[in-house]
Amino acid sequence: MSDNIVKLKALGIGEAESAWMRESFYSDPKNRLAQNACVKQDFLEVCLDRTVTEKMTHRFNTKIDPEGKPMTNQKNSGRCWIFALLNIIRTPFMKKFNLEEFEFSQSYLFFCDKIERANYYLDAWVEMAKKGEAVDGRLMHHLLQNPSDDGGQWDMLVNLVNKYGLMPRQCFPETFACQQTFKMKRIVNNLLRKDCYILRKMVQDGKTDEEIHTKKSAMLAKIYTVCGICIGVPPENVVWEYYDKDKQYHAIGPITPLEFYRQHVQDIYNIDDKVCIVNDPRPTNPYNKMYTVDYLNNMAGSNIVLYNNQPIEVLRKLAMESIKSNEAVWFGCDVGKHFCRSSGLLDTNAHDFKLLFGADPLLLSKADRLIYGEMFMTHAMTFTGVNLEGEKTLKWRVENSWGDDIGDKGYLIMSDDWFSDFVLEVVVDKKFVPTEILEVNKEKPVVLPAWDPMGSLAQ
């Protein structure tokens, strides 16, 4: 037995140390009381600070009008990034067409993304095989973990809408597999990993580009079949029939989804006019610089995912100005931190973890949380309101996509401190962005590694 193994065994927890920790735990009456409470209910509810929740009411002095109806629900899927965009677009769309309620088809963009993303990764794996990238290297390991991920980033939405357009939900409704995506995603991932193996071998065996392309097309057709069976195949042309608020019947179409976007949506929401601003405070990534993440995309030959890195005060001001102008804001955040699901509260002071556990999880700075794997962009939602005291932001109204049984009929409330700590990116119209910040978008981006936390996907 080597000396290293002996040393590692010597570091194990001994009986005396284990007995000391047990005695220390039960000698504190607070631990016994906390244990009695937490074994019977959610510990997050036990340590919820009532003095904080009482102050954070769902009332706002600045809101967009109208807010979207009905409240959307992504169910058990990672499509929040799609829902958040479509929730934003529908509010001016409802106003334009005098609608009481409306939804765009989330499953349509979801289907398009699944096919495009599969094609993107098949191309990427051929490229990496030609470069001699090791199959057991960190890059390949990262990309093979979940190639058919449900989640996404803002620029992926831009790619999809500009190529495929939009359609009303009634023209391509939800299916079981859209709302319960795990099983379909597992099948597609299985196919993609097998395809990666075959394509790499073809490159190593010296097959021609034409032979590889022919094989890749057959692989993509199989993935299309899986998605078509589970999600449905979107119609090439749609007819949208609807009643307006005055109970008048209208019909638009037959029309392609791309024509529908260009003729009926783009004038009220031009996705090319939107700018994604991120807050990455790590010292290695200075502000006023452009960044991208290696192999982070969903469409071959399209725009890459770009990040204009700015201080959090910039994100806050841009979001505020947008809402004041009656325009909702797409944003990405780490939603699981300091979140009270029952009341829909996002507040860094909502839970007194130190009182319950004797430990404070907020000791790390935002930069250190990104560095040490404590923080990722996990979810995308929509800002629809803000409470202002002059130009000072106090709290934010958030439209989520988890149904109407959370918070205020599905709407969440976010403290301004939570915004600073856990919001990572916002998307606003370029008319709100100062010229000097827009100029940053013209720079050549710094390429971050594929596994960088800023490359995480909102789900």
From TrEMBL:
SUPFAM superfamilies: Cysteine proteinases. The keyword Hydrolase applies. Its EC number is 3.4.22.40. Coiled coil: none annotated. It comes from the Eukaryota. It catalyses: Inactivates bleomycin B2 (a cytotoxic glycometallopeptide) by hydrolysis of a carboxyamide bond of beta-aminoalanine, but also shows general aminopeptidase activity. The specificity varies somewhat with source, but amino acid arylamides of Met, Leu and Ala are preferred. It is found in: Cytoplasm. InterPro entries: Papain-like_cys_pep_sf, Peptidase_C1B. Keywords: Cytoplasm, Hydrolase, Protease, Thiol protease. The keyword Cytoplasm applies. Belongs to the peptidase C1 family. This is Bleomycin hydrolase. It comes from Priapulus caudatus.
